[in-house]
């Protein structure tokens, strides 16, 4: 039996629950969940869908697939319903892609902590490529070329590159010029692009240009997305994949549907009801999405301000709900308190200041680097009342219940960095 560990973010959740049960007060920024309540009309659709108790088609019913096709179409990716597969989360769709696409996988380094273990579960090698200075979610183009050449020289066979637009863990969005460069490399090197766009509707400023590789290299891009992040529905498990048009895309989709048919059968009927409504994007839902993105942006920028004023380097967040600080400028100061790498840094933050973050090495980063991910979406409040208040606030970071936790974070970082 293989004894692979639990995903590090889920394991961290258990540590937090344990220590909280023992009476510790912790600020948990170690889990990538949007702490917002379910939007009322989504709950109504879930209830209305309760009667949908039959299995239904593996790829999803025609209605939900047509709605998802419309969603992609409104984002400059013209889509037919038969290019779409819905599933219980995008995680299983990504895993199915790893199963059906041969060869090894190129990943940005750092990247979301699930891509590399999924690749390994499918018997592949995950090849981490450093990210550019200005953003994460994509490999730095010249490093990508070098990594492909080096991997091939070692007898590896990279065939797929995963991009995260916007990115977890850096909370940034790759600009169109870099996306185009990656697409050009994918064409030259014959790579399939998997574009994970689960944070696409969590771009903080609606004026920010978003370019999907599916617009540039449509015949070689699979887009995955879902409702876990933008609509805070992680526990409802609704994911979607869009496959390229044409025969090669249809073959790839059929292979993923075959895996789906043997593992999860279909997305739960009531969730298809929810997804059909959500992908239809009625005005009230768009308003809710816009308010959520504003809140995510305001709090992420505030945490960015806090870590930068404590002396960290950190890319300014523009999407999703994360910051990825680098405490390298403070290495000497931190050595004095026994902090020399990512594991000792995150342990010290937890033990000395009750701040929980995810160490960078869990995301493929160098263990010796003083980097970590903080999920800023955990700061909106403990109760649904507090979370609704945060969503409605003009200036959410100065709401008393939000400020109180931000003050703990600010105090902790100030002390850590002047220790
Ligand atoms: C980049 C990224 N992709 C995919 C997922 C998985 O989402 P889902 O809930 O659709 O499985 C996550 C969740 O943390 C994520 O951060």
Can you put this structure into words, describing what you see?
The structure is a single chain. This protein is an alpha/beta fold and 419 residues long. The chain has two domains: 8-31 and 285-417, Aspartate Aminotransferase, domain 1 (Alpha-Beta Complex); 51-281, Type I PLP-dependent aspartate aminotransferase-like (Major domain) (Aspartate Aminotransferase, domain 2, 3-Layer(aba) Sandwich), CATH 3.40.640. 44% of the residues lie in helices and 12% in strands. It is built from 15 helices and twelve strands. The chain has helices spanning 8-21, 40-48, 62-73, 90-100, 115-121, 141-153, 176-189, 213-216, 247-263, 269-280, 283-309, 331-335, 342-353, 384-392, 400-417; strands at residues 27-28, 84-87, 104-109, 126-130, 158-164, 192-196, 221-226, 239-242, 322-323, 355-356, 358-359, 372-375. The strands form three sheets. It has a seven-stranded mixed sheet with strand order 2-8-7-6-5-3-4, with helices on both faces. β3 (104-109), α5 (115-121) and β4 form a beta-alpha-beta unit. α4 (90-100) crosses α9. The longest helix has 27 residues, at 283-309. It is globular and about 60 Å long. The termini are far apart. The model has no long low-confidence stretch (mean pLDDT 96). The structure holds pyridoxal-5'-phosphate. The site of pyridoxal-5'-phosphate (PLP) has 13 residues, from α4. Pyridoxal-5'-phosphate (PLP) binds at residues 32, 89-91, 112, 164, 168, 196, 198, 226, 228, 234, 239.
């Amino acid at each position: 039996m293989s004894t692979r560990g639990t995903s590090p973010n889920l394991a961290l959740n258990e540590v937090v629950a344990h220590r909280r049960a023992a009476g510790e007060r912790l600020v948990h920024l170690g889990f990538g969940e949007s702490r917002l309540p379910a939007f009322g009309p989504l709950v109504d659709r879930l209830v209305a869908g309760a009667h949908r108790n039959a299995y239904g088609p593996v790829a999803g019913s025609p209605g939900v697939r047509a709605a998802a096709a419309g969603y992609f179409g409104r984002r400059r990716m013209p889509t037919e319903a038969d290019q779409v597969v819905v599933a219980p989360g995008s995680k299983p769709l990504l895993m199915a892609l790893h199963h059906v696409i041969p060869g090894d996988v190129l990943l940005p380094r750092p990247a979301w902590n699930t891509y590399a273990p999924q690749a390994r579960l499918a018997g592949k090698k995950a090849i981490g490529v450093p990210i550019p200075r200005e953003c994460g979610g994509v490999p730095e183009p010249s490093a990508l070329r070098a990594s492909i050449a080096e991997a091939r020289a070692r007898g590896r066979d990279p065939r797929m590159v995963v991009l995260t637009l916007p990115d977890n863990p850096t909370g940034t969005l790759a600009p169109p010029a870099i996306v185009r460069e990656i697409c050009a490399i994918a064409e030259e090197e014959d790579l399939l692009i998997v574009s994970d766009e689960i944070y696409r509707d969590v771009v903080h400023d609606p004026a920010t240009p978003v370019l999907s590789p599916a617009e540039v290299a449509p015949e070689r891009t699979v887009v995955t997305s879902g409702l876990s992040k933008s609509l805070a529905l992680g526990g409802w498990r609704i994911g979607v994949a869009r496959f390229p048009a044409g025969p090669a895309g249809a073959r790839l989709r059929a292979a993923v549907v075959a895996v789906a048919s043997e593992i999860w059968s279909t997305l739960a009927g009531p969730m298809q009801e929810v997804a059909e409504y959500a992908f239809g994007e009625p005005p009230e839902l768009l308003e809710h999405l816009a308010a959520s993105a504003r809140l995510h942006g305001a709090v992420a920028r505030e945490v960015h301000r806090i870590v930068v004023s404590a002396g960290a380097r950190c890319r300014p967040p523009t999407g999703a709900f994360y910051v990825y600080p680098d405490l390298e400028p403070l290495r000497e100061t931190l050595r004095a308190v026994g902090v020399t790498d990512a594991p000792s840094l995150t342990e010290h933050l937890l033990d000395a200041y009750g701040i929980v973050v995810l160490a960078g090495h869990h995301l493929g980063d160098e263990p010796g680097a003083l980097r970590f991910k903080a999920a800023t979406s955990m700061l909106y409040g403990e109760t649904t009342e507090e979370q609704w208040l945060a969503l409605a606030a003009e200036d959410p970071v100065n709401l008393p219940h939000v400020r109180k936790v931000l003050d703990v974070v600010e105090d902790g970082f100030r002390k850590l960095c002047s220790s």
